[in-house]
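Morning run. Coffee first, then this:
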Amino acid sequence: MIVFESKQLIKLPSPMEASRHWRLREQRYRLIGEVCPHCETAIFPPRDICPDCGSEATTKKQFSGRGEVFSFTKVFDAPAGHEHNAPYTLALVRLEEGPMVTAQLTDLGDEPVEIGMPVEMVTRKLREDGERGMLIYGYKFRPLLVRQEGSIIRERG
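And here it is:
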């Protein structure tokens, strides 16, 4: 007989949670959305039906990941699972291709966030699912970096 003594309960991710993250991997890691073949509207996140014309929109589209800050706020009282990130900046980003994306801004340092600030998508850890559970990664946005003669600088809007 094996006896395990532990004062701590370890929560493992449910199979449903794992499969959900697997299904969303393209949109979370590669910013894959859709484009309507009828009216050419770019759609993110993917939703199969065009919000503009109501037609079927199942053509995949890889977004550039570049855009600009449309609006932003600082979150001090974070939702469950994100408390360790607080305070953090949450932004509404207008992608170059048109869709709006809500995401956390990262790699800001002391740089102030401004409306119109150019940003680019990066993949970062969003949260952990339990002490020994799954690490959940997804997109965040950082100020746009521009390479210039062997050095990297931040672009200002």
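The longest helix spans residues 15-23. Good start to the day.
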